[in-house]
Amino acid sequence: MKIYYSVEDFHPLPYAVVTSGTFDGVHVGHQKILMRLKETASAHGGENVLITYWPHPRTILRPDEPAIRLLTTFEEKAQLLKEQGIHHLLRIPFTQKFANIQSIDFIQEILVKRIGTRKLVIGYDHRFGRNREGSFELLKQNATDYGFEVEEIPPQEVDHVAVSSSKIRKALEEGDLTTANHLLARPYSLTGRVVRGDKLGRMLGFPTANLDTESANKLVPREGIYAVRVLFYERVYGGMLYIGTRPTVDEKRQVIEVNIFAFQQEIYGELLTVQFLHLIRQDIKFSDLEALKSQLVLDQAAALRCLNP
């Protein structure tokens, strides 16, 4: 997969089948669009193109609102799209200037002249251009004039629920991993660099790797103890992960730390990816460290049951 970081880097293709959107999470609804994108390109001997935007448009369009927490960093999204079989990924910087582009100019200057679009495949209720004026109806009206076809994909439903990134974010914020992972079609994951902590876990008999996610916009699930899989240098380990402020010791800042089962290496400075499988319990304050240690024994047993059902 080729990645382009500006429109100017892209050269028109002989037969481009294109889709556009934020594609945060690359969930099952997105995957339905991507499948149709690939099928269409293959049927015409063409290449598929995905246009995405960075930062998330809401950051620019609604600056007074709390910052949106994303299901995927750009690097994670790019890897998922590569695995889905995308040929060309065009990342357009979403600025206030870009937000003010008229929809007709987006069609003419980017879709037609810059990319060479022959067919456009878009999701249900896709909007684009200044004030979200562009729509499926507008695209259909102009498609013939500019020499491309347009196809709208209806919303994907799972268990009679329309899939959206917003629903997945809400599920993760509530600790509902069953719903989130079902709609993603994979476990939700978080990548962080291992940093030094105060070694409280080691003192309790449960040494942990403290993670710095290095991405302020990445969504961190609700606080609590989770059963997780840990990916480290192409090896997979079981573990239990804690997110919270460690109320038993009156910690003020939120920490993310994972106890990796059957693992003894020193890995400060390394990157770990954790896949969230199940919320074991919420974060609570214990009377003392001995009570916390006793609970951790139970948490470990619960995590092992999740990992080895």
Q: Can you tell me about this structure?
A:
It is a single chain. The chain is of the alpha/beta class and about 300 residues long. It folds into 2 domains: about 1-160, Rossmann fold, CATH 3.40.50; about 190-305, Elongation Factor Tu (Ef-tu), domain 3, CATH 2.40.30. About 30% of the residues lie in helices and about 30% in strands. The chain contains 10 helices and 14 strands. It has helices spanning about 30-45, 55-60, 75-85, 95-100, 105-115, 135-145, 165-175, 175-185, 200-205, 290-305; strands spanning about 1-5, 15-20, 45-55, 90-95, 115-125, 150-155, 155-160, 160, 190-195, 210, 225-230, 235-245, 255-260, 270-280. The protein has a 6-stranded parallel sheet with strand order 1-4-3-2-5-6. Strands 9-10-13-12-11-14 form a 6-stranded antiparallel β-barrel. It has a two-stranded antiparallel ribbon with strand order 7-8. Strand 11 (about 225-230) and strand 12 (about 235-245) form a beta hairpin. Helix 7 (about 165-175) packs antiparallel against helix 8 (about 175-185). The two termini are about 35 Å apart. About 30% of the residues are buried.
Q: What is the overall number of helices?
A: 10
Under CATH at level 1, the class of the largest domain stands as Alpha Beta
Q: The CATH topology of the largest domain, please?
A: Rossmann fold
Task: Quickly count the domains.
Answer: 2
Radius of gyration: 22 Å
Helix vs. strand class: alpha/beta
Would you count the extended β strands for me? 14
Strand content: 25-35%
Low-confidence stretches: none
Helicity level, as a percent range?
Answer: 25-40%
Instruction: Give the terminus-to-terminus CA distance.
Output: 37 Å
Assign the CATH architecture of the largest domain: 3-Layer(aba) Sandwich
Q: Strand sequence of the main sheet, in spatial order? A: 1-4-3-2-5-6
Describe the largest sheet. Answer: 6 strands, parallel
**CATH homologous superfamily of the largest domain - what is it?**
HUPs
The chain-level mean pLDDT equals 92
* CA-based shape: elongated
- The succession of helices and strands, N to C, reads EEHEHHEHHEHEEEHHEHEEEEEH
